[in-house]
Amino acid sequence: MSVEKVLCMNAADHEISYANNSVLQKAVISKARPILEEAITDLFSKTLPTSIKVADLGCSSGPNTFQIISQVIDIIHEICHQEQLKLPEFQVLLNDLPGNDFNTVFSSVPGFYERLKKEKGEMLQDLCFIAGVPGSFYQRLFPSTSLHFVHSSYGLHWLSKVPQGIENNKGNIYMASSSPPNVFKAYAEQFQKDFSNFLRLRSKEIMPTGRMVLTFMARNNPIFSNEDYGYWELLAKSFLDLVAEGLVKEEDVNSFNLPFYTPCEEEVVEIVEREGSFDINELQVFKVDSTPPRDGDDMMHDKDFGLNNIYIQSGKNVANILRAVTEHIFCSHFGDTIIDKLFIRFATHIANGLSNTKKGERKGERVNIVISLTKNYEDKRMKAASPVGVANVIEVSLHKAFRYKCKKGGKPSRKDTEDGSTPNKAKSARCHKGKNDGKKDKTKLTCYNYGKLGHFTGECTKLKKVFFNFMFYFDCFVARQNLYAHHFSMLVVDS
Ligand SMILES: C[S@@+](CC[C@H](N)C(=O)[O-])C[C@H]1O[C@@H](n2cnc3c(N)ncnc32)[C@H](O)[C@@H]1O
């Protein structure tokens, strides 16, 4: 299945359009705003170029597309106002897959300029230039070192392809708590490849010290089988209902898997650090309620209040949110005749789930990660390619202070190493604190170094695998103070 051909949010003229059913994504954008603000302020408060190039990747079509542009312009407008600086020109590059409803995006541009004019005055409107860039963000999209800032919200959990070798994920359409272990591994590996590739590509396009803020859906739990896959499992159940009714073939469900992946925080950090082109400034894990606002828990549990209607309405709303995103991909595999029935079943399953919610329990919460990154001055892998660079690789691995602030559930972060611990201790204290007071059950953790279970990569006693050469990615190993590399010939260097 070519993801580029089948992944497409429902267009504006569709009854269940993405534009009208993207409140969840809107809430996510709002929650991530403080990180966006911090990144842009940090980037432009020292030097403000006369022309700023910003790209939004996976922009889709609808109000959210323009919400991001507005936020970026607002923040820079505010910096200029405070520092009494001349407003720059804005080149805004909106990217999505070629099948995206770019017609609606482009026809909404004049209305956006009008709003800008009303809210910020004539001048800003004249300074803003919007362009569309069709293509996959898993390929090069922009000229080298041309961008100041890259943003992407709710696009990166889509993979470039369905992982291979997961034919045994029967009865599921995505990872499920019951999926066989090879399915989890294949999904994780595909994400690792795709996200590393994304970082590598963007590092070529972003200017040195340029910034990137990425938000995507995530997993709460590093242990795959302990995760609640919520709506995806209910969608699979809805497909199986249609199988039982003879409307869908069982083998069609068995052969379908979504090109989608929700990483956990630890995986994201690991991939960014291993890829090496960006430093992490901040990472936050936060939840957003995907069910519409209700009048409080007490009311939800008042059976005399006719509240079944609330659950039914919530079920429909959530079903529409998921339908606007997945309809195209489902139609391409199952045909379009089953779609209405599928989402009616799905809405009912959600409503039933909500009506069985215990007081205080939040069934519709979606976990998200927002990560703020800075492009390195110099690519660490480039440094590593020269003999002088060898020491730098070791330096990076030994002295990589854990510079970013990591917040879970929106709690304020502590400053780096303010507890007096070594940087690495600060990292685990800050990022891995959970129900077990910072101690994770590591029995099912997969180490990214060699894929063995039972420990984090940082605790791996084996030689650390790192990328060595920018051009060829030689295998190389860092062992404490020494770096060993091998390709055709063996190179041993002492730091
Ligand atoms: C759920 S929408 C999010 C849209 C918007 N950013 C928002 O927050 O409302 C995800 C978007 O990412 C796009 N997308 C997914 N994979 C992509 C890829 N490889 N390249 C470009 N866009 C992609 C999809 O087409 C879709 O429009």
From TrEMBL:
It comes from the Eukaryota. SUPFAM superfamilies: Retrovirus zinc finger-like domains (SSF57756), S-adenosyl-L-methionine-dependent methyltransferases (SSF53335). Pfam families: Methyltransf_7. GO terms for biological process: methylation. GO terms for molecular function: methyltransferase activity; nucleic acid binding; zinc ion binding. Keywords: Magnesium, Metal-binding, Methyltransferase, Transferase. The keyword Metal-binding applies. Transmembrane segments: none annotated. Residues 407-439 are annotated as: Disordered. This is Benzoate carboxyl methyltransferase-like. The lineage of its organism: Eukaryota, Viridiplantae, Streptophyta, Embryophyta, Tracheophyta.
